């Protein structure tokens, strides 16, 4: 048996969008189950996201600390952002987020991993990149607002982040998945064996 996720779509008898927000919406589908019954499934419709594990030459990862209102915590995270434009190239979006949030650019980009954050209740897909060959970006810093105006930046050793994840001190999905994937890739075929930055992404097709 091949362990691989596969596309499949069960019959939808009816659909409704009871809520439309600024970036996301809520959809209700009437889905036909294998036994023929029809059930309601409510879920958040999300444009998708990108995130960046930016690794410097001292084996430190660029992280930021930001307030997240739904969980009432300040979380340590890696640079990330929405795919605001349908069909947007995820690499370009990740490069933009790294510049805007950390004022950093990178020479080497790879796909670290692709995940669905909460597939039981949201269709958000996230592509997490590995960025290496870091340097300070040129030009003026991006003007931040709202929660980002209170953001803190740091560079933290990979081993320290791993300890924080396993100790239950760090909870951000992209940071946890990204850092542990980085460690797994190192112990496997190595970072240079990761997929290229423009590898296909069926969950969010894009123009190269």
TrEMBL record:
The reply on keyword Glycosyltransferase is no
Single annotated GO MF: hydrolase activity
Where are the membrane-spanning stretches?
Answer: none
Record's SUPFAM superfamilies?
Answer: Nudix (SSF55811)
Keyword annotations:
Hydrolase
- Its domain of life reads Bacteria
Q: What residues does the Nudix hydrolase domain cover?
A: 44-178
Q: Return the PANTHER family for the record.
A: ADP-RIBOSE PYROPHOSPHATASE, UDP/ADP-SUGAR PYROPHOSPHATASE
Protein name in UniProt: NUDIX hydrolase
Provenance organism: Streptomyces thermospinosisporus
């Amino acid at each position: 048996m091949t362990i691989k996720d596969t596309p499949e779509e069960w019959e939808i008898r009816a659909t409704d969008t009871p809520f439309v927000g600024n970036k996301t919406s809520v959809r209700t589908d009437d889905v036909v189950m294998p036994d023929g019954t029809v059930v309601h499934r409510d879920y958040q419709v999300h444009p998708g996201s990108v995130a960046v594990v930016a690794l410097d030459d001292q084996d430190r990862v660029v992280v930021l600390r930001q307030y997240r209102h739904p969980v009432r915590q300040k979380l340590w995270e890696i640079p990330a952002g929405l795919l605001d434009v349908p069909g947007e190239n995820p690499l370009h979006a990740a490069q933009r987020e790294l510049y805007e949030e950390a004022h950093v650019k990178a020479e080497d980009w790879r796909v670290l991993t692709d995940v669905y954050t909460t597939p039981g209740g949201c269709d958000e897909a996230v592509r997490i990149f590995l960025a290496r060959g870091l340097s300070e970006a040129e030009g003026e810093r991006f003007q931040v607002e709202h929660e980002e105006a209170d953001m803190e930046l740091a560079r933290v050793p990979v081993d320290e982040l791993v300890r924080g994840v396993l100790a239950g001190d760090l909870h951000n999905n992209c940071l946890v998945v990204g850092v542990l994937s980085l460690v797994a890739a190192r112990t496997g075929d190595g970072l240079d064996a990761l997929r290229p930055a423009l590898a296909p992404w069926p969950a969010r097709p894009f123009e190269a």
